[in-house]
Amino acid sequence: MANWQEMMPSTRAYLMDKVLYELHHKPDHLEAYNADADAYLARFGLPEELATAIKSNDVAGMYLSGVNPYLLRAHCIGVKIPEAESLAALRSLLDHEDYNDG
Amino acid sequence: MAEITGIYTASHTPVMLNFPDSIPAALKDEIFAAYKAMGDDFMAGKPDALIVLSNDHLHNFFLDNFPAYCIGCAESYESPIEHWLHATRRTFAGDQAFGSYLLKNALEAEFDPSFSMEMVLDHGSLTPLELAGVDPDLPIVPVLINCVQPPMPTMRRSYNLGKFLGQAIANYDGVDRVAILATGGISHDIATPRMGMVNEEFDQTFLAHMESGDVDATIQYATDFVHTAGNGCEEIRMWMAAMGAANGATYERTYYKAVNDWYTGIGIGRFKVS
Questions:
Q1: DSSP letter string over B180-202?
Q2: Pick from A29, A86, B65, B76: most CB atoms within 10 A?
């Protein structure tokens, strides 16, 4: 596998990037999200499947959106998804034939 | 005319602070001792200022405006910016004049960095400084390289930026003694299916290239094989910059261990500049 899903910026990934960035950097956003995830996510005009991946803590689904991995990682820790759960979800996507051969 | 008293390269990861006990205590102690030894060596050189070559992990910079290179020109830097990082909040002194000097000279040398007069440093700068026990009153100048969002500056460009920095530091009259800490890498994956599967073979080969003193071969290897060693390995751009600043000085690793449960190949080393 390669280091990155997307070698160039894409609008679809950016939609997810923006949510995961603002959630953990803008004052009161995390509280608003925790209070009412649907209302919070409605601010962003995301495609439904991306919003669903976020609110259901679907780490594999978020990864496959092309989101920046650092934003995904910070989000997993920031909303306290158990470490073993995050890791297992990511690992489930590994194609062993691709491992470390780029 | 400033003297460069030391140039170190060292990995960083928030896991060291957030989940330190996910590895055996003896190994954790060994790694923390290696960082402390680096810090002691740094401070033995009695630097007046410290250049921190690191990267922002999408905290200060976002995709609305993301610099390839950024030079810090602030009087001070709070840290950390991550609300989830298990670290004591602290304020590092900044060397505003030194940062501004490097910025102006970089532009004159036809590099085009952005600059920042207000940044809250993330774990990329904080963890190695904290573990090294570097005095927070030692003024720093952060120089940040985009290693986290493609497309990114090339390995060679980062080496050349470091070469420029070494020369500019040598020509600077504002301080007498300067140390450089380049932090990031080596092999690691962040939030990918490969996370926790450190490519030790890459790390060993990379470190051997660094120690060989063959700059072109090192840059070529970094360029051609970084994609086998994880998105976090893109941070070896800071090692390229350190190699440029070292201007031919010999490199030696002081510590290496592939630590899968910290998701990272932990490498520490120094250039023999003094």
A1: EEEE--SSB-SSSTTTT---HHH
A2: A86
Q: Are B179 and B238 in contact (CB under 8 A)?
A: no
Q: What's the Cα-to-Cα distance from B271 to each of A71, B105, B221, B252, rounded to whole Å?
A: 33, 24, 19, 6
ipTM reported for the complex, 2 dp? 0.94
* Contact between A18 and B63 using a beta-carbon 8 Å cutoff: yes
Give B-chain residues touching A25 at CB under 8 angstroms. Answer: 59, 62, 81
Are A25 and B59 inside 8 Å of each other by CB? yes
Taking CB atoms and an 8 Å cutoff, what residues of chain B touch A1?
192-194
pLDDT in tens, A8-26: 999 999 999 999 999 999 9
Give phi and psi for B2, each to the nearest 5.
-90, 145
- 10-residue mean pLDDT series, chain B (274 residues): 96 93 96 97 96 98 98 97 92 97 98 97 94 93 98 98 98 98 98 96 98 98 97 98 98 98 97 90
One-letter amino acid for residue A36 of the chain: D
Q: Which of B189, B193, B228 shows the shortest C-beta gap to A101?
A: B228
Kindly list the domain boundaries of chain B, sorted by start residue.
3-271
Nearest to A3 among B14, B151, B230 (CB): B230
> Which chain B residues touch A73 with a CB distance below 8 Å?
190-191
Set out the domains of chain A in order of their start, with CATH numbers.
11-98 (1.10.700.10)
Tell me what pLDDT residue A95 has: 76
- Per-residue model confidence as pLDDT tens digits over B157-179: 999 999 999 999 999 999 999 99
More confident residue, A94 or B226: B226
- Chain A residues lying within 8 Å of B151, measured CB to CB: 7-8
Tell me: pLDDT of A102 over 60. no
Q: Which of A3, A83, A100 sits opposite B234 (nearest CB)?
A: A3
Please state which CATH number belongs to domain B3-271: 3.40.830.10
